[in-house]
């Protein structure tokens, strides 16, 4: 019997010094070797055309075998990575357009604040409203809501009297079960019946939360477009 050599890829080693994420190192392939067999497919991969990281992440979420959508650690890490990159890019714009070339050092900023000069902090808080999740962002959204309420009050329509909360009833929507069944078949070629197997339904709802979120967003968009928008237009006419 003829012996054949099987190529083997060693498991990534763990270093004491962390990898700088803005380097050209394939960070995702090293951190998630079980998702990138062969060490290919990273965002830092050499490509003929530049690929936006959001498009890259979305393509992997809908990869044919579903392993990226099922891996919760990869999803959270990638989302955090995207937001850090976005905030870094926006912070460069802040420094360039708001501060200029005379960038103060940390010591000078501390001295300015001690002297009562908070102009830099005011600029930073104003700029922060465009970064989702920050305190400045939610204060800006709160101000927009108050402006909307005051606008309708001034025009004699009164303050809003209806408060809606939308909940995801993932265990009761037949269409969602059908979508999960189709997704399982596409990724594993297995036919499942989620109308009878409640334990499997519970597992799939946790494993493929991406499908649940997308479906819930579509329901919310349809509700706002076809119901809330018409009711709002009718009330405005009155």
Please explain how this structure is put together:
It is built from ten helices and no strands. Among the domains are: 6-99, no CATH class; 174-237, no CATH class. It has 238 residues and is mainly alpha-helical. The chain has helices at residues 27-31, 53-61, 67-70, 72-99, 106-114, 119-127, 135-154, 174-188, 198-207, 209-237. Helices cover 58% and strands 0% of the residues. The chain is flat. Mean pLDDT is 81; it is low at 233-238. The termini are far apart.
Summarize the helices and strands and which ones pair or pack.
Layout: H1 27-31, H2 53-61, H3 67-70, H4 72-99, H5 106-114, H6 119-127, H7 135-154, H8 174-188, H9 198-207, H10 209-237
Q: Gist?
A:
The protein has 238 residues and is an all-alpha fold. It has helices at 27-31, 53-61, 67-70, 72-99, 106-114, 119-127, 135-154, 174-188, 198-207, 209-237. The termini are far apart.
pLDDT < 50 runs, ≥5 residues: 233-238
- Overall pLDDT confidence: 81
- Helical amount among residues, as a percent range? 55-70%
Gross morphology? flat
Structural class category: mainly alpha
- What is the strand content? under 5%
> Largest sheet, described in full?
none
Termini gap: 88 Å
From the alpha carbons, calculate the radius of gyration and give it in angstroms: 25 Å
Encode the helix/strand succession as letters: HHHHHHHHHH
Instruction: Give a count of the beta strands, DSSP E runs of length 2 or more.
Output: 0
How large is the count of helical segments?
10
């Amino acid at each position: 019997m003829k012996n054949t050599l099987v190529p083997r890829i060693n498991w990534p080693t763990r270093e004491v010094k962390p990898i700088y994420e803005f380097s050209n190192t394939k960070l995702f392939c090293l951190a998630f070797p079980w998702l990138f067999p062969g060490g290919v497919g990273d965002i830092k991969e050499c490509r003929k055309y530049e690929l936006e990281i959001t498009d890259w992440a979305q393509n992997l979420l809908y990869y044919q075998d579903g392993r990226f959508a099922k891996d919760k650690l990869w999803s959270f890490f990638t989302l955090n990575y995207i937001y850090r990159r976005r905030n870094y890019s926006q912070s460069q714009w802040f420094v360039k357009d708001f501060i200029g070339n005379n960038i103060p050092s940390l010591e000078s900023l501390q001295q300015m604040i001690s002297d009562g000069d908070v102009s830099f902090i005011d600029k930073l808080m104003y700029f922060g409203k465009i970064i989702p999740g920050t305190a400045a962002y939610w204060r800006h959204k709160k101000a927009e809501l108050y402006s909307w309420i005051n606008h309708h009050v001034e025009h004699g329509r009164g303050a809003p009297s209806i408060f809606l909360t939308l909940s995801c009833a993932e265990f009761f929507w037949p269409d969602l079960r059908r979508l999960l069944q189709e997704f399982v078949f596409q990724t594993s070629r297995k036919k499942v019946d989620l109308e009878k197997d409640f334990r499997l339904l519970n597992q799939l709802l946790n494993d493929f939360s991406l499908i649940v979120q997308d479906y819930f967003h579509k329901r919310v968009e349809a509700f706002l477009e076809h119901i809330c928008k018409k009711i709002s237009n009718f009330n405005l006419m009155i």
